[in-house]
Amino acid sequence: MMCRKNPWAYLTMLLAVAGCAAPPKDAAWPPRRPLGGDIAAYVPPQKPPADPTPPEFQEPTGVVDLRTAWSAALMRNPQLRAFSWEVRAAEARVLQASLPPNPDLEVEIEELRTSRGAGETSRKVTLGPEGFEVEQETEEGPGSGFGSAEYVIGLSQVIELGGKRPKRTAVAALERDLAGWDYETRRVSVLTEVAKAFVDVLAAQERVALTGKLVELSETLLTTVDERLRAGKETPLEQTKARVALATRRIEAEQADRRLNAARKRLAALWDGQTAEFEKVEAVFDRVRPIPAVEELADLIDQNPEIARWAAEMAHRQAQVELAKARRIGDLTVAGGIQHFAEEDDTAIVLGFSLPLPLFDRNQGGIAEAAFAAAKAAEERRAARVQVQAALTETYQELASALSQVTGLRESVLPAASEAFEAAAEGYRAGKFTYLDVLDAQRTYFEGQGQYIDALEAYHKAVADIEQLIGQSLASVGRRQETTTQETDHEQPK
Questions:
Q1: pLDDT over 80 (residue 2)
Q2: Cα–Cα dist 212/120, whole Å
Q3: How many structural domains does the chain have?
Q4: Residue 44 domain-assigned?
Q5: How many Cα atoms sit within 13 Å of 16 on the Cβ side?
Q6: Is 70 within the bounds of a domain?
Q7: Do the Cβ atoms of 108 and 152 come closer than 8 Å?
Q8: Does residue 273 lie within any of the structural domains?
Q9: Which of 71, 204, 278, 451 could serve as a FRET partner for 194 with CA atoms 20 to 30 Å apart?
Q10: What's the burial of 302, exposed, middle or buried (CB within 10 Å: 0-12/13-18/19+)?
Q11: How is residue 45 annotated by DSSP?
Q12: What whole-number distance in Å separates Cα of residue 103 and Cα of residue 26?
C-alpha cells in the first residue's frame, strides 16, 4: 500500500512508539523466617559494582556468642552472598522480559550505477542545395551514483499478540521470587550451620576442660602413689601404672586441643574467616528446656522456606502454562517507510504487514509440556511437605533421646559416679582401696562426663535442626506455649 503524505512525520511517530519501555522495579524479597529475622544479612546493591571484591572485614575477636557468629556469617558467608546476587540477576531478567522487540531498519536501493551508461546516437539525412546532408546527434547515458537510484527506507516492528509480553514478564517475576526463596532457604541453612558449628566449638571447649581436669587428677593420683611407695605401702608396679595413665591423659588432652582448633576454624570459615581470631565461644552449654509437643511443631512447618516457596512455585508453573498458550498466536509484523522515485523525483509512503498462519504449529507440545510440569509441581509440593514432616519426626526423636540422656546422666549417673570416685580416692589414700579401684572409679566418672558432653552436643544440634525445619527458635515456641497456658488459666471461671 502506498500513499503520498509527509513520510518523516510517520517515521518519527513509529520510532517514538517503538522506544517506549517501563522503568525497572526492585524485587520484593520474600519475608524472612522468624529464625534470625532480626539480624542484618547481606543485600547487594541494585547496580552492579565496578569491583565485586568484598570490602575488608573485621573478624570477631575475644569472646563470641551465637548472635555475634550469626551476624558475621549472614554478612560474609560466600554462598549466601552468591545467592543474593542471583536475586539481583533475576531482577534484571524481569526487566529484560518486560522489554518489547526492537524495530528493524530496512534500506533497499535499486538502479545504483557505478559508471555512466552508454549514450545513444541518432542520424538524420536531409536533401539540401549541396546534396544529401547527414546530421548526427548523441545523447548522454544515465549518470553514475545516487542521482538515478531508487531507494526504500523503512522500519518494521514486531507487535506481540496474545499478551506474550506481560505473561513473559509474569513468568520472569515469579522466577525472581523463587530466587528470593532460594536465598531465604540458604539464609536459614547458614544460621543452622553456624549454630551447629558453634555447638561443636562449645563441646570441644568442654572436652578440653574435662581432659585438663583429668590430667590434674592423674597428676595428683601419681603424687599419692609416690608417697605410698616411699612409705612402703605401694609397689613400683602401681607407680608405673600411674605414670602410664598420666601419659595417656596428656595425649588425650593434646588430641582435644587439636579437635578444638579444627572446630574453631570450621566455625570461622562460615563467615569467610581465614583464621579463627576469636578467643572462645560462650553460651550456657548445660541448659536444656522441655520440648514442645511434636504436633505443635508440626503446625509450624509451613514457615519452612522449602514449603513456603511452593506458593510461588505453583504460580510460576501456571504462569508458564499461560505463556505457552499465548504463544499459539503468531506475532504481527508491521512495516512502513518511504520510497524515492528517481524519474519523477518524488517520494511515497510504503506500508505493509505480515502475520503467520497457525495451520500446523500452534505450540501444542509447549502447552502440553507446561501443563504436565504444573501437574508435576503439585506432586512435588506434597513430596516436600512429606519430607519435612518425616525429617521433623526423626529429629524430634533424636532430640527427645538426647534430652532423656542428659537428664539421666545429670540426675543419676554423674552424682553417683562422682561420689564413688571421691570415696575411692579418699579410701585409697587411707589404704582401704587399691589403685585399680581408684582407676576404675575415675574411668567411670570421666566416661560419664564425656557422655554428658556428647548428649548435650546432640541435644543442641537437634535443636538447631528442628529450628531449621520450623523456621523459628525452639525457645520461642515454648514461650508462646506458656503464654497461651497462662491466658487460658486466667480465663477460667472462678
A1: no
A2: 117
A3: 1
A4: no
A5: 6
A6: yes
A7: yes
A8: yes
A9: 451
A10: middle
A11: -
A12: 27
Give residue 145's region: left, alpha or beta (phi > 0; psi -120 to 50).
Answer: left
Taking only the tens place, the pLDDT of each residue in 31-66 is 999 999 999 999 898 888 887 777 777 889 899 999
Q: Are 204 and 283 in contact (CB under 8 A)?
A: no
pLDDT tens track for 371-415: 999 999 999 999 999 999 999 999 999 999 999 999 999 999 999
Q: From 474, 467, 399, select the one nearest 194 (Cα to Cα).
A: 467
**Cα–Cα nearest to 198, from 276, 281, 78, 261:** 281
What cell was used for 406?
542428659
The answer to whether residue 19 is domain-embedded is no
Question: Which tens digit of pLDDT belongs to each residue from 229-238?
Answer: 888 887 888 8
Would you say 164 and 68 are in contact if contact means Cβ atoms under 8 Å apart?
no
Q: Can you tell me which residue has the cell 522468624? A: 34
- Which range of residues forms the domain containing residue 441? 2-13+61-97+160-328+363-491
d(CA 252, CA 221): 17
Helix, strand, coil percent content, the chain, rounded in steps of 5: 60, 15, 25
- Beta-carbon contacts of 84 under 8 Å, excluding residues fewer than 6 positions away, are 41, 42, 43, 44, 183
Return the C-alpha cell found at 142. Answer: 544515465
Q: State the pLDDT at residue 86.
A: 94
The whole-model pTM stands at: 0.81
DSSP label at residue 292: P
Task: Tell me if residue 6 falls in helix, strand or coil.
Answer: coil
Nine-digit cell string for 100 = 518489547
